[in-house]
TrEMBL record:
Record has Nucleotide-binding as a keyword: yes
Reactions accelerated catalytically: cytidine + ATP = CMP + ADP + H(+); uridine + ATP = UMP + ADP + H(+)
Organism (species): Moheibacter sediminis
Protein name according to UniProt: Uridine kinase
Keywords: ATP-binding, Cytoplasm, Kinase, Nucleotide-binding, Transferase
Biological processes annotated in GO: CTP salvage; UMP salvage
Classification lineage: Bacteria, Pseudomonadati, Bacteroidota, Flavobacteriia, Flavobacteriales
SUPFAM superfamilies, per database record: P-loop containing nucleoside triphosphate hydrolases
GO function term, MF aspect, one: uridine kinase activity
Length: 209
């Protein structure tokens, strides 16, 4: 089993990198786990109170559960992933039954900030993108997919997202084995290198077994 951690600021293009890796590999052998499903549940709070939570701080993530789930998958065990709603800022009642696969990709803005989780990764990747480009993508996503308005998105960016990126996310880049620049030509080269690396590691693992 090969476990890969992919981090980067919001809107940096992590999902695109993951999608391109999946295209170059046998997708049936790859499991993608999103940090977004592991936000802590706060059903005891009102919706108005949940809206005020700083979701870009590491303490907003249930790293204990995420780390435990990755360990279980590594041991060949099935897990039940939580499902998080960004509309209500709380977990849904449903879970995702998830079985281990040859390659596990754990992606999210904060996945390289937690030492215990980070130690489980065989390969650590950071996707870098210009801050203006990331903001534009964040605005589009939050308005189109999460029902936010422009003023809310910009206020959250100024008060929490930008300072949290500078305090936690950008520094976590120092833990990365590979930094992927989110520029088309360089991105394509990086994806090819990553895909080759993954294939080689899987082949060497199979030979060892």
């Amino acid at each position: 089993m090969l476990i890969i951690g992919i981090a980067g600021g919001t809107g940096s293009g992590k999902t695109t990198v993951v999608t391109n890796i999946l295209r170059s590999l046998n997708a049936e052998d790859v499991l993608v786990i999103s940090q977004d499903n592991y936000y802590k549940d706060h059903n005891e709070l009102s919706f108005e109170e949940r809206e005020k939570i700083n979701f870009d701080h590491p303490r907003s993530i249930d790293f204990d559960l995420l780390t435990e789930h990755v360990k279980q998958l590594k041991e060949g065990e099935m897990i039940e992933q939580p499902v998080y709603s960004f509309i209500t800022h709380s977990r849904k009642d449903e879970t995702i039954i998830t079985h281990p696969k040859n390659v596990i990709i754990v992606e999210g803005i904060l996945v390289l900030t937690n030492p215990e989780l980070r130690d489980l990764f065989d390969v650590k990747i950071f996707v870098h993108a210009d801050s203006d480009e990331r903001l534009i993508r964040r605005i589009r996503r939050d308005i189109q997919e999460r029902g936010r308005d422009l003023d809310e998105v910009l206020t959250r960016y100024q008060k929490t997202l930008k300072p949290m990126h500078e305090q936690f996310i950008e520094p976590s880049k120092s833990h990365a084995d590979i930094i992927v620049p989110n520029m088309k030509k360089k991105n394509e080269v990086a994806i090819k290198l990553l895909s080759t690396l993954i294939k080689d590691k899987l082949i060497s693992t199979a030979v060892t077994k």
